[in-house]
Each structure stands twice: as structure tokens, then as C-alpha cells.
Amino acid sequence: MVIASAPGKVILFGEHAVVYGKPAIAAAITKRIYVKSRRIDSGIQIFSEDKTESSIEYVKHAIELVIGTKRMKKQGIDVTIDSELPVGGGLGSSAALSVATIKSVSTLLGVDLGKEEIARLGREVESKVQGASSGIDPFVSTYGGAIYYRDGRFDRQQINPLSIVIGYTGSPSSTKNMISNVSHLREKYPKIIDHIFDVIGDISERAKIILDASNRRFETRKSKICDESGDLNENELGDLMNLNNGLLEALGVSSFSLSNLVNASLLAGALGAKITGAGGGGCIFALSSGREKEVSTAIKMAGGVPIPVEISFDGVRLEPNSRKNII
Ligand code: PMV
């Protein structure tokens, strides 16, 4: 038996535009999916509390790809999924599931995969199930921390702790459908939608400058982009989140509940709030900057579920003792 786990994520800036080659920034969070795999005589068995069709698809494709890397014959494998992430919540549950399955099953079968390969296979699983994937989710879930991502290439983004509260609407959404809706809108209004993607890309670039400056400040305390106290310029980061959210609204990926949670968070004093992930349902996150309690209460009052998280610097990993327990 081998247990592996991988973190979910928030896309801080740039979802949807990243599918069209624009930059985006994402960070892994301290909520994970655990995948336990063990050998059985034949076939593939999958146990998951949520029992959604799509979870099963991600696991099946992940197993097939791992087996395919060594051209092995079919293997009997039993997989059990244990998740701290809401399914279809925009928190990268499908990528975390794919990446944790790849790590768990490859270890079980003695296939040695590096992180780069795990992330690339994770992207392939997403593309097969969703029809399109920028790859940002599997990459951040594999490596942990924060990444600046563009066109299959990524840089580790140094990031200091941010106080983030996630607001879950309670209704799942389909990443595949949301990507397809945006694609139809782009077919109808190519010039306008490409402009929106360009501006979202500019927002991600500007956010990168602020995050980089705050890190330099951590070391030198001399950055000009930081505010007077020398802290991370959270006000500007909040502005950029609000601008990004307006553009996601324009792309049609918001919903009544998502807008409600964004507005409630801002009224409670969050510096910025935006949809995270594909939208349509799922989650928002708020930059709460010392007002976590007020923002969490506001999210609850607006009908959402507040999920306080921190950035996770751990990516995909084997859980203790799982190597010893390979049978
Ligand atoms: O909803 P999630 O966590 O699957 O995020 C999807 C992010 C998109 O930009 C909409 C798609 C992608 O592959 O980048």
C-alpha cells in the first residue's frame, strides 16, 4: 500500500486567460487530497466519498498514463481517495487528485518519476478529461509554494505568508463547461475577449512585481514598491484582485453566489476579493489582512462556507510509512 498526497491551490491571478497563453500566479494551500493505492488481482477499483464520475475519470487516466510510461501490461490496482478539498470548488481538486494518484500508483509499481514528469502527466490527465488545461494546477500541486506560470513554463514565485480566507459557495462547478463557455464567447467576440485576456495578463505581471518586491524587502528592506511600513503592498495587491475579478465577471464566469461572497468580503474590510479557479460556482478568496474573523463571518452571513487557509510550501509527497508498506 502506498499513500501519496497533493495540495489544492488558489489561482491568485490570471485564470482563464492562462489557457490562452497569458501569465498567471497560483499558490498551493494547506488542504490536500490523499490517495491510497494497493495491488489487487485484476482490474481497477476506485473508492471515493464523492463518487463523482469525473473523479473516477481523473484516476483512471492517471493510472493508464503511469502504466504507459513503462509500457507495462494491465495491472490490478485499488485506489481510495480521501479529500479535504470540495470537488469542483475551484481549488484544484482535480489536479491534486491526478498528481497524488500518479505519485501513489507510480511508487506502488516501482516507476520512478521526477516532479517535472509528474506535473506533465497531471496536465495530460486534465487535458484528457477537461478538453483543455493550461497546466497551472498540476504544476502548483506538484511543486507546492507559489508559481508564476505561462505556456507550460513556470518559475517558482517567492511569496511571503498572505492572510487568505476562501469562501465556498457550496455549489460545485465544471471546469470543462466554464472553459467551453469562455471559448464560445471568444469565438463570438474575438477582439474584445482577447483584449480582456491581455489585461488579465498585465494584472498578473504587475502582481509578480509586487510579490517580488516584497521578497526583496524581506531581504533588504529597501524596495521602493513597498509601502511606508516596508510591508508587502497589500493595498495594491487587493486592487489588482478587484480588477481581475471585474474582468472574470465580464467573461461571464461569475454567479450570483460568487458575486455575493466577493461583495460581502469587501464590505467586511478585505483589501481584495476575487473568484478563484474556473468560476460558475466554487470559491472566491479574500485578502483579509488582519480581518480574517470579520471576513469569515461575512462569508457565512452571505451563505458561504469560510475556509481559512495558508500557503503550503509542500507539493506532492509520500505519506509516512507508505514505502515500507508496499505489498
Ligand atoms: O477550477 P479549477 O481549479 O480547475 O481552475 C481552472 C483554471 C482555468 O484557468 C479556468 C483552467 C486552466 O486549465 O488553467
UniProtKB/TrEMBL annotation:
The gene is mvk. GO terms for molecular function: ATP binding; magnesium ion binding; mevalonate kinase activity. Homodimer. The keyword Isomerase does not apply. GO terms for biological process: isopentenyl diphosphate biosynthetic process, mevalonate pathway. It comes from Candidatus Methanolliviera hydrocarbonicum. Residues 235-296 form the GHMP kinase C-terminal domain. ATP binds at P86, V87, G88, G89, G90, L91, G92, S93, S94, A95, A96. The active site is at D137. Belongs to the GHMP kinase family. Mevalonate kinase subfamily. This is Mevalonate kinase. PANTHER family: MEVALONATE KINASE.
